[in-house]
Amino acid sequence: MDYRVSVLQYEPKLLDKQKNLAMLREMLRELDTDLVVLPELCTTGYLFPSREALVKVSEEFPSGEAVETFSEIAFNRQMSIVYGFSELSGNTLYNSCALINPDGSHHLYRKTHLFDREKLFFTLGDTGFNVFTAKGGVKIGMMICFDWQFPEAARTLAMKGAQILCHPSNLVLPWCQQSMLLRSLENRVFSITSNRIGSETTAGVTLSFTGQSQILGTKGEILCRMTENEIAVHTCTINPDLACDKSITANNDAFTDRRPEFYEL
Fold first, then answer.
1. What is the pTM of this model?
2. Residue 40 designated active-site
């Protein structure tokens, strides 16, 4: 089964949702793919000066402006879109991502493991790790940025049947891109890490983002990886069914050889 997957990398403007949506609209306007993954918090930027400023650019799901924008693109281009955003649910803020499908269906994930200053603004996610159906019946799991640090996240999604790990990110630590090679290899799944570029400064705090968005194969092979400063969309053709094969040798299987009675979590 030939399936086109894409990863988008760009530099969002802090607290300028309208400009960010316009930039993303343009980058996706002529994209020919089945599934594309966008960065974490791709409509708002990351280094927020206050909760009040963040609330103004956050939105409810599934009634927000970003959902409307990406739903229109998903339908017109007949592709599934995974993107990260700041979700406002009542008075609670979540660092979330969503899957928008061309048939109008949509699914939500709230970040389980918050990183550093995110804890000043966001509440720990309560959705857990679930697998959803994208275009073509392909099974995807969503995880966000710092979730990579916890192998249980990727393992849970893989055990639930995910063929592709969709991983919106705003990475500042230097280890994730290489660590995701192992996440794909140990779980025999594809993974798509969409990172942002550039830097942001707020109240004397500066963060620089590492770029290097990537698409990985089921043995951890790099199918594509961007540079640290590239603004682009890259596309690869994969066979998602390869993620259903967990064999390592004729006598070993990545899942059936597990002995959870001896593991401590």
1. 0.98
2. yes
